[in-house]
Description:
By secondary structure, the protein is an all-alpha fold.
Amino acid sequence: MSNPPGALSRRLRLVAAHEHGVGPEQLRWIGTDPDLFEAFYREHVEDLQRFVARRVGDRERAADLTAEIFLAAIDSAHRYRPRRGTPKAWLYGIARVLVANDRRQRGRERAGEERLRGSALLDEEDAARMDARLDAAAQSRELYAAMDRLPEAERAVLELVAIDELTVAEAAAAADVRPVTARVRLHRARRKLRAELEAAATEPTPSKEK
Length: 210
């Protein structure tokens, strides 16, 4: 007995997703097909955790935000349009909005009194990996301090390309700007960042009091 057309189409989508990643033609199904969502999740979760960890200094909150980003992806997958960018760029666009909203809501204060859902999603191995990512991000404080002094629009494109390893086209889609605009912002950001770091390197080191 042959499979019904719907079952056959679903199987072909899953095969393609496992072999080549979830492409633009499959993305709209991640909200209704748990297996396809799992393939999408496994494909992007580690990079997305690094993306969030670089911007959020708390492990549980970073895990919580990562989960929220994937939930938002499920909810909005049916609205995805390939002309707006690759699935990766689309996902990072969602991530940028949620992380920015979280930063605005919380400021720079740690919400120590709140019981965060993210802690329940982490086993010991997950927690160790998240801590390692947060530690790696903290090792580049001087670089990130210089990046923080860049205009937000320029810093966003620089982070997406230089740190998150998106292409300029993907970064443009994630930031919702034209590729030519992203290139200009990237060029300006690199020039300003280079000047900031060179200036910091030439500053005299304060002498210790005897």
